[in-house]
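Tutorial handout. Part one gives the primary structure; part two gives the three-dimensional structure as tokens.
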Amino acid sequence: MGTISRISTYSQPAQPLNFLGHLADNYLNWADKLSFYRYMLIGILIIIQGNIIAPLNLILITHVNLGMDFIFVPLVTLTTMAVLVSNIAMIPMRYVMGIFIANLAINLAIAGIHFVHIF
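Part two.
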């Protein structure tokens, strides 16, 4: 025979979901842990930006002519300079990684716009 458990009538008060605050705390903790590997990460971010992201986007912009080169080329140049200056300035890693993630999102959006035009 099974046991009968008593149903608890105790209810906890409703707590609002703090999803964005939780994400922000996780990001800040992650960025603080990355500060131990600061110099290695700075080199890796500069190599990724200068040798992969910027050249591929500039090649894509020049070969797929959307007539918007006057917007996309300065935008890629500006985001590249933001990554390089933030890495050289020795600001905290949370800002460096935030700038790099924003740069990556902007460059992926530019590449996506050009790939949509291709297909």
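Part three, for discussion. The chain has a mean pLDDT of 85. The radius of gyration is 23 Å.
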